[in-house]
Design the sequence.
């Protein structure tokens, strides 16, 4: 691997930008660097206090989708081998991932993030919109290729009359298509997001790869590589969300002269 650029990895881009790369394990592009984020995220959760709950689970992996997150019993997440509260979907995901691993291939997936207890008023209206800074943090996680809030891309197919989180006759807002953020500012409802992780790039299947001279070489990667990293990403997702929200909380306290 020292002589070729692994497909799907940051080898070529790091080499182009810095003129050097760490062939021993990916260097800064390795998810090992996120251990510091998880530690900091644990402290951020304490700062947010017990009123705010930050939790993440696997909603889809290896092409298999779980049930609607609004129906989940989150306590079942710990019983799942892949961090999915829908145990039926969890078993199917594990089976499919095992099959792909046996074929020398890998899988990707989607993490569902939910934050409860954030009051209305956190975030900024323009460049530092709450979903913008959350997206910035979540997209910084290794292998993340997409983030959506609330209904996200699915909301683009709806009518305004369907998408608007309007109150019912009792004055209660029962849907949350905005994902808890309106105009870049938290609206008091749960913050929801989905984070897409690409399939693991290190696979045992033979692939074409380029070397520094531009020659095509054959590459097969061996070693202890996960076929699915999404379950391992759950504490990282929670940590980045907690860090971002703790910053937003402190900023709001300063603006409202509560510090």
Sequence:
């Amino acid at each position: 691997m020292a002589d070729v650029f692994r497909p799907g990895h940051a080898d070529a881009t790091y080499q182009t930008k810095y003129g050097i790369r760490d062939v021993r394990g990916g260097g800064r592009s390795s998810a090992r660097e996120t251990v510091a984020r998880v530690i900091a995220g644990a402290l951020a959760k304490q700062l947010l206090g017990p009123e705010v709950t930050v939790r993440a689970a696997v909603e889809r992996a290896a092409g298999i989708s779980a049930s609607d997150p609004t129906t989940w019993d989150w306590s079942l997440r710990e019983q799942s081998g892949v961090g999915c509260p829908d145990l039926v979907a969890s078993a199917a995901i594990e089976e499919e991932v095992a099959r792909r691993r046996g074929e020398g291939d890998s899988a990707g997936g989607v993490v569902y993030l939910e934050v409860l207890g954030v009051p209305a008023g956190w975030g900024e209206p323009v460049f530092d919109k709450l979903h913008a800074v959350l997206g910035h943090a979540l997209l910084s996680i290794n292998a993340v290729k997409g983030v959506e809030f609330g209904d996200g891309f699915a909301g683009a197919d709806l009518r305004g009359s369907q998408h608007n989180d309007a109150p019912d006759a009792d004055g209660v807002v029962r849907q949350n298509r905005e994902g808890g953020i309106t105009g870049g500012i938290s609206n008091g409802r749960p913050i929801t997001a989905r984070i897409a992780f690409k399939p693991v790039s290190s696979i045992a299947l033979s692939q074409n790869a380029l070397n520094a001279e531009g020659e095509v070489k054959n590459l097969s990667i061996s070693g202890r590589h996960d076929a699915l990293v999404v379950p391992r990403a759950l504490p990282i997702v929670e940590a980045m969300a907690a860090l971002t929200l703790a910053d937003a909380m402190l900023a709001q306290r300063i603006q409202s002269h509560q510090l």
